[in-house]
Amino acid sequence: MSENSTTIVEKLTHPLREFLHQETSGGILLIICTIAALTWANSPFAASYHHLWHTYLAIDLGGMALKYTLHHWINDGLMAIFFFVVGLEIKRELIAGELSSMKQASLPVAAALGGMVVPAVMYYIINSGNDGSAGWGIPMATDIAFVVGILALLGKRVPLALKIFVLALAIVDDIGAVLVIAVFYTSGISVNSLLLGAVVFLVLILMNRIGVRNLLLYSLAGIVLWLAFLKSGVHATVAGVLLAFTIPASSRINTEKFTGDTRLLLHEFSDAGEHGENTLTNSARLTVVTEIEKNCEKILTPLQKFEHGLHPWVAFAIMPVFALANAGVSLGRGLDTALLHPVSLGIILGLFFGKQIGIFSFSFAAIKLGLADKPAGISWSKIYGASILAGIGFTMSLFIANLAFSSAELLDVAKVGILAGSLISGITGFLILKSALKPE
Question: How confident is the model at residue 413 (pLDDT cuts 50, 70, 90)?
């Protein structure tokens, strides 16, 4: 491969490599916060752990008081930003990524469908007729940060095609989780609030259509949309996804014009002063730099600006805080009983067996039936290892568990199942992929 073609490939894959790097680092921080939460909740200071997250925080907005526990603010407030970024990633993938064409999307869609249906059915069979039946959505989720973190531990031996398959699968999985939350984990609908949310959503779509690109305007409208959903009965995080789908994804100028104009401006810059200067000593150069800056603003889409700006905050702040607030469960008493509880058992079997059976069998069927193409250089053993790894359902599983169970006892049992199922899937998937990636 020539040096020029290598440079082009590096440029094309740079956004993916940057995303993977952030997810890897975020996954490590997520693990640290999970261990910290478990340690804190099982230490002599356990009471302070629970007291902290149940501390009330009130905000008065023009006479409308919002008074919720810190735990509630994290799960309904900060996680709305998490879902907004998830929505941006989904939109990007649908427009220009691995889900942009039927040919590209068919395999990860089939895999994700199997990875959602089989675990949910497996869980429901075990818990049908008991108090835990509402938790069927818990083992459907895949945690991108943890999965990417484990893939990073395997190093450069992991083919790029396998990483793309896993990421696309997880994105489709997120779409399924959002739909499940919106449709099945909603209660006590407030029609007026929902109508307000619908009006704001239509305004956001209109803003997109008429070419509004100001991030502040979208942010303010997004806050109103979030408030409407917060009071509507539909979970507030759904507002984040809806907002994401209204954010413009096209640039003001095309890449050809950007390249041509910028090249001319750089020539003007070079001609307007001495080479090697460290300061802008004349107004001509300052004018050129300003024009280049305007060009950069025109080529960047609002979607890219939001995603690039918020993703580090989600990976390094919001998700770790969520883990710290939700992963703390007492393991000292009755751990064996908790592990054998139908809710915990359903989650463990769903995440570990359900995920691998569903993803691998649906992928196999889609390829053999000619509905999808098998990625070049990816063996069945690698797909199987990735199927097991997708059983790490930490963040989204914890989130759905909080929606499914109002009982603290069932929620704690569910957390034990999520931690155990994710740990087993992570270790087993790592070992199988490590073996599959050995040079032949």
Answer: very high
- The HSE-up count of residue 367 (CA atoms within 13 Å, CB side) is 17
* Paired residues of 64 in beta bridges: 61
pTM score, two decimals? 0.80
Average pLDDT over residues 302-324: 89
Other CB atoms closer than 10 Å to residue 159's CB: what's the count?
Answer: 16
With contact defined as beta carbons under 8 Å apart, do 236 and 77 qualify? yes
CA of 19: how far to CAs of 10, 155, 277, 301, in Å?
14, 16, 35, 17
Main-chain phi, psi angles of 327, to 5 degrees: -85, -10
Residues 170 and 168: their CA atoms lie apart, in Å, by 5
* Contacts (Cβ under 8 Å, ≥6 apart) of 363: 107, 110, 111, 114, 372, 383, 387
Ordered DSSP codes for 39-90: HHHTSTTHHHHHHHHT-EEEEEETTEEEEEEHHHHIIIIIHHHHHHHHHHHH
| Average pLDDT, rounded, for the chain | 85
Which 8-state DSSP code applies to residue 57? Answer: E
Residues in the chain: 440
Read off the DSSP letter of residue 58.
Answer: E
Give the closest residue to 395 by CA, choosing from 329, 324, 308: 324
Report how far residue 131's alpha carbon sits from residue 108's, in angstroms, rounded to the nearest whole number: 33
Tokens of 174: 């997120």
Ramachandran region of residue 254, left (φ > 0), alpha (ψ -120 to 50) or beta?
beta
Q: Amino acid identity of 177?
A: A
C-alpha triplet 5, 268, 280: angle, nearest 5°: 105
Which strand (E) or helix (H) includes residue 59? strand 56-61
Helices (H), 272-301: 283-299
Q: What is the pLDDT of residue 256?
A: 81
Closest CA to 67 of 77, 56, 76, 75: 56
Q: Is residue 5 scored above 50 in pLDDT?
A: no
Q: Are 4 and 295 in contact (CB under 8 A)?
A: no
H/E stretch holding 274? none
Q: How far apart are CA 159 and CA 151, in angstroms?
A: 10
Alpha helices in 330-407 (DSSP H): 335-340, 342-349, 355-368, 380-389, 394-404
Helix axis angle, 302-313 to 79-96, nearest 10° = 140
CA 315 from centre of chain:
9
Q: For residue 350, which amino acid is it?
A: G
CA–chain centroid gap for 23, Å, is 10
Phi, psi torsion values for 22, nearest 5 degrees: -65, -40
Quick one: tokens of 374? 């098998």
Beta partners for 68?
57
